[in-house]
Input
Amino acid sequence: MNDAMVYGEKLTQLNPCDPRTLTLLLTPILRPDAKLVDVGCGRGATLQWLSRHTRYRLYGTEPEKALRDVAALDCPEAVLSDAAAENLPYADDYFDAAIMECVFSLLADPAAAAAELARVICLNGILLFSDVYSPAGVNVEAAENPLLRNIYSKETLEAFFENSGFAVLSVFDHTKDLRSMFAQMIMDGTAREFLDSPGRKALRRWKTGYGIWIFKKTG
Output
């Protein structure tokens, strides 16, 4: 199994926001035929769920070919791209909504990614965003690890998007789910294998939380 495939599997494990939860959050605020992109879709688990349970017109981006190939196989209805989050290959105002799950904390240029999301989402469009955060109100540069680059405070995360033209509609805390999932990874031995010692220490030291945000593009 190559590194990209392992990376995708572990991101799925570390993400306590399952596609069913995302669907329940999106359904009341999106029209049934909304055009939606999953930025950093990985193996396409969310796209696959949405293709089975909604009528959204689905797109996805994933730079890792191995992960993108799995997504294409499991969700042929989605139009996939190899684009990075910082450089999306879509026209201005192209989407009604975007999803970004457990990707932002991995990016080298998060401000560029926030600006790109604002560019491709139409006015009054929706961004459903989830990631780890630092409840201590500080930003942490984590150890070099494919699953963890930076842990931002809630205020910093929101500022990235507010500065790009989004407003916060709702915030949901799923920290307990993250900790339960990480505890399970420790018990089954996968935490040590896929998150190195500095990464584990960073999560513990900063009492890392996990949140889901719904942003609306207002400008």
